Design the sequence.
């Protein structure tokens, strides 16, 4: 049976540090306690999108999930749930009250959007603490909370299979995701998109965004955007950074090169990325970088592989300058520094 990737829902999150349970401690009521702690932070989102079908406008209803991340009503969700093309959308809080919301912004290269409630409920909101996804480990218990099939407040439980799953998922700018995904077997279905993946401390550590399935429903392989990526995207949106950094080059992992090729090119390191080609109209080549130079850091941040390169590159500020530490092809023993326009 053919395998397909299916996008699923939406969610929203917050940057605070909250009450913590003993990490990964389990008893018969652990999941109940965590669920009570965070359930009011997860919302359902109903969406109306107008598309042109056979030359005529047609309104299509859909939906997903979101996570409240601030007291003033900010909600993080998936871009495939709410984007700037969405016609109208309403947010249903846990317990039933509905509110209109406005689109704030979205990431150019990953599946995240930020929306905000137009008004606030009496008694305020309960933002979800945003955890540190770098602390997630394989085998950790996680809870997935969202609105699969429109059933708001649905809880499922599973474990983290890996926190470093690289997926070749096309984005709107034509490249693949610049970050890994957290893989879990917690049941994730259509409508969970944007919902919360939560640790036993009641912190958001991921935003469910897709599943791998031959049927379009849960097969035990779901993926979430790590919370540390979510933090960066929220910051970008709030600070109105709408463009990602671009150095104009194609790179390859040093560790994936054949030893004979590395020897021929004089590459003496196991980490870093090798420049294999330059894209048209790039500034890096004009700054002095050459094909087969090895990049080991950008602006002081280590670049050990292509994934790290893409993530550091996308976080650069367009119009600025980046400092690259490289081992030039003709002199692999002494690193040099190059300033490259972005």
Sequence:
């Amino acid at each position: 049976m053919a395998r397909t990737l299916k996008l699923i829902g939406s969610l929203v999150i917050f940057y605070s540090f909250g009450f913590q349970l003993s990490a990964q401690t389990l008893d018969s009521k652990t999941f109940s306690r965590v669920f009570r702690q965070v359930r009011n932070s997860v919302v359902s989102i109903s969406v109306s999108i107008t598309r042109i079908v056979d030359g005529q406008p047609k309104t299509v209803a859909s939906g997903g999930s979101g996570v409240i991340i601030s007291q003033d009503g900010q909600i993080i969700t998936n871009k495939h749930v709410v984007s700037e093309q969405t016609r109208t959308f309403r947010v249903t809080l846990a317990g039933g009250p509905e509110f209109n919301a406005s689109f704030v912004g979205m990431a150019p290269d990953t599946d995240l959007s930020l929306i905000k409630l137009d008004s606030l409920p009496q008694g305020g909101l309960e933002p979800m603490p945003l955890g540190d996804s770098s602390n997630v480990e394989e085998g950790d218990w996680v809870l997935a909370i969202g609105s699969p099939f429109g059933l708001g407040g649905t809880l499922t439980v599973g474990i983290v299979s890996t926190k470093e799953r690289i997926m070749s998922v096309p984005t709107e700018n034509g490249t693949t995701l610049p970050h890994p995904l957290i893989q879990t077997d917690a049941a994730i279905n259509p409508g969970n998109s944007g919902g919360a993946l939560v640790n036993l401390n009641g912190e958001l550590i991921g935003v469910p965004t897709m599943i791998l399935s031959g049927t379009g429903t849960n097969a035990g392989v779901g993926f979430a955007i790590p919370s540390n990526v979510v933090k960066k995207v929220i910051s970008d949106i709030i600070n109105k950074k709408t463009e990602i950094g671009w150095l104009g080059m194609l790179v390859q992992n040093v560790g994936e090169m054949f030893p004979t090729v590395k020897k021929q090119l004089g590459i003496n390191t196991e980490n870093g990325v090798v420049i294999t080609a330059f894209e048209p109209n790039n500034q890096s080549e004009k700054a002095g970088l050459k094909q087969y130079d090895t990049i080991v850091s950008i602006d002081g941040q280590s670049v050990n592989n292509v994934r790290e390169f893409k993530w550091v590159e996308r976080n650069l500020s367009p119009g600025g300058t980046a400092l690259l530490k490289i081992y030039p092809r003709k002199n692999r023993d002494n690193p040099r520094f190059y300033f490259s326009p972005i």
Q: What stands out?
A: The first strand starts at residue 4 and ends at 7.
